[in-house]
Amino acid sequence: MFVVNVEGAIHRNGKWLLILRSEKEEYAGGTLSLVGGKCELEGYSSDILERTLIREIFEEVGCEVTGLKYVNSSSFVTDSGMNVIDIVFLCHHKSGEPFSKSSEEVDDIIWMTTSEIQGNTELPGYLKNNIKQAEKILLDNSNDKY
Fold first, then answer.
1. Which end of the chain is flanked by fewer CB atoms within 10 Å, N or C?
2. pLDDT, mean of each 10-residue run, the chain (146 residues)
3. Would you give the DSSP letter of residue 31?
4. Three-state DSSP class for 68?
5. What is the DSSP-derived secondary structure letter of residue 131?
6. How far is CA 1 from CA 36, 45, 85, 146, in A?
7. Is 78 a domain residue?
8. What span, in angstroms and rounded, lies between the C-alpha atoms of 68 and 90?
9. Torsion angle of C-alpha atoms 24, 40, 18, 84, degrees rounded to 10
């Protein structure tokens, strides 16, 4: 059994939106990451990944996104042994200035350029890879507004 997690790579004005995860978080507390969260049980539904991501971004940082484009998927096992499937989407920032709306989940908001992310030795490789792949999609779709 897997937990399904979705994350949003939000790009605006040449920078990516990262959150400093709350120390209270069970997984990766106190680290930088993309915004996102777990899918909830819904029974039969459609667009659950997209709807979950839109909801999680609004709940955690108070902004709206649109134009989700698939970036990649991966799996990992948490320290507590939970198997997770993680899906990343490139998102267009639609409205609202991001802030630490959910203090239980987010300690801070940080905007970083791709080169700042790639050059930061303290950031995990999976985050750097997600940004690298999201930027490739961003550049391939440079006529779109992201």
1. N
2. 95 94 61 90 88 96 96 92 96 95 86 97 94 95 66
3. S
4. strand
5. H
6. 20, 19, 10, 34
7. yes
8. 6
9. 80
Q: Which amino acid is at 9?
A: A
CATH number for position 73: 3.90.79.10
Two tokens, residue 7? 């994350």
Closest CA to 30 of 39, 21, 19: 21
Distance of CA 54 to the CA centre of its chain: 10
- The end-to-end CA distance of the chain, in Å, is 34
Instruction: Indicate yes or no: pTM above 0.85.
Output: yes
Paired with 18 in beta bridges are: 110
Domain count, the chain: 1
| Contact status, residue 134 vs residue 11, Cβ threshold 8 Å | yes
Residue 60, both tokens: 């955690």
